[in-house]
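pinned: reference chain
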Amino acid sequence: MLKTYIKAFGYAFSGIAWFIRTERNAKLHLMAAIVACAIGVYLELATTEWLWIASAITLVIVSEMINTAMEKLCNRITAEQDSEIEIIKDIAAGSVLITSFYALIIAAIIFTPKLF
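pinned: its structure tokens
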């Protein structure tokens, strides 16, 4: 039974590695996360501030991963132009945009008073 769990973790890590290695937006979000963390270290953020930053980073990356999975799935369903598939892809992309705005708001609330 332990082997099954270990194997499942392997699949999950493989998916994360593929996502980072192949997706342009994954690299962009990862770089933004690294910059946010570097600024946080420099500004010596409090524990609660780190929790907000971590939640924002996590939400953006997870939503981008779900968006990527939805796009890949939709592309497997049909390669033809389909208005319903287009809506599905747009909604998934919209979720990334919303979480990205959330992350920017969190960053502005936490970093702005400390920087200016």
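why pinned: Helices lie at 2-22, 24-43, 47-77, 83-115. The chain has four helices and no strands.
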